[in-house]
């Protein structure tokens, strides 16, 4: 029994070594040893597959090339967060591997068949994660839970729902949600001005949640709706002073939502903006000694104070 386990482990090590030896020239930089990423990784993975696909699906080199290609495409979807292609490809490849044609099966393929099947299962899991979410048709009784209208609003924005609500609940216009969130922020700031004590983290959460989370199901908004709402949040307080808590939280929320929804370029831009904002604030602190107590200290008064 122990010998069988040892043989299986040694086969696993041998397979991983062979896989690494085959992948490295295609997917790793020869100078720094780091993996390529982004469009470069996708392009090289495609070339890797094209080079070996002529050998057929029952050749181990073709298998490894397919696995590399699918992973590269799943990890670098970019703005198109969802894709059916990787899943379709791995399904088709699985059928080829499981076919009954044993005539052209190479000895090395038979040797590592279990490891290849495990890799297929792993690739299918990754590809399933990239499948577009199933959408259900909007029920006829659905209406905006804020304005109670079931038609597009005055700006032409239709009803949307990207949270976890079910049935006819949770539908809303993005402008209605923006107005609702802004009112929530105003109410919260008024409470803070009356002397309510709250930490900076708690204050930030109270301000960002109305813009990022459905108040009905308490789940985060997703997809395009989420980052459009975050952009509106940022624009709402863009003209406010640098040391105003709502402006700081809006930029922080914007960068986080961009990254969570795979809008990486815009997310990095928002992060740079946030860093510049912090630098500006610190420069002002050094020059005039002012501090925004709601952001930098755990205090209830949000007025700018002297040290």
Automatic annotation (TrEMBL):
Keyword match Zinc: yes
Record GO terms (molecular function): zinc ion binding
Keywords of the record: Metal-binding, Zinc, Zinc-finger
SUPFAM superfamilies, sorted: RING/U-box
InterPro entries documented for this protein: Znf_RING-CH, Znf_RING/FYVE/PHD
Domain RING-CH-type: 143-187
Keyword Zinc on entry: yes
Domain of life of the native organism: Eukaryota
Protein name: RING-CH-type domain-containing protein
Organism: Skeletonema marinoi
Biological classification of the source: Eukaryota, Sar, Stramenopiles, Ochrophyta, Bacillariophyta
């Amino acid at each position: 029994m122990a010998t069988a386990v040892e043989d299986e482990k040694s086969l696993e090590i041998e397979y991983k070594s062979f896989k690494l030896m085959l992948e490295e020239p295609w997917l790793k930089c020869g100078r720094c040893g780091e993996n390529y990423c982004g469009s470069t990784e996708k392009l090289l993975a495609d070339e890797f597959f094209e080079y070996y696909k002529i050998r057929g699906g029952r050749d181990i080199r073709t298998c490894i090339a397919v696995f590399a290609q699918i992973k590269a495409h799943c990890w670098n979807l970019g703005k198109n967060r969802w894709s059916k292609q990787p899943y379709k490809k791995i399904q088709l490849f699985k059928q080829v591997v499981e076919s009954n044609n044993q005539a052209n099966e190479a000895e090395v393929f038979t040797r590592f068949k279990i490891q290849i099947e495990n890799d297929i299962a792993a690739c299918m899991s990754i590809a399933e994660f990239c499948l577009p979410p199933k959408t259900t048709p909007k029920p006829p009784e659905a209406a905006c839970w804020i304005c109670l209208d079931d038609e597009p609003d005055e700006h032409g924005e239709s009803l949307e729902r990207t949270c976890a609500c079910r049935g006819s609940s949770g539908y809303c216009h993005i402008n209605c949600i923006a107005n609702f969130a802004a009112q929530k922020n105003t109410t919260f700031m008024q409470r803070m001005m009356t002397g309510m004590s709250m930490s900076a983290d708690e204050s930030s959460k109270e301000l960002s949640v109305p813009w990022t989370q459905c108040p009905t199901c308490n789940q985060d908004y997703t997809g395009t709706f989420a980052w459009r709402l975050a952009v509106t949040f940022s624009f709402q307080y863009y003209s406010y002073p640098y040391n105003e808590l709502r402006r700081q939280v809006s930029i922080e929320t914007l960068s986080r939502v961009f990254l969570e929804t795979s809008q990486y370029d815009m997310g990095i831009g928002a992060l740079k903006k946030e860093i510049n904002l912090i630098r500006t604030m610190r420069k002002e602190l050094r020059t005039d000694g002012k501090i925004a107590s709601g952001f930098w200290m755990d205090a209830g008064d949000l007025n700018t104070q002297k040290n």
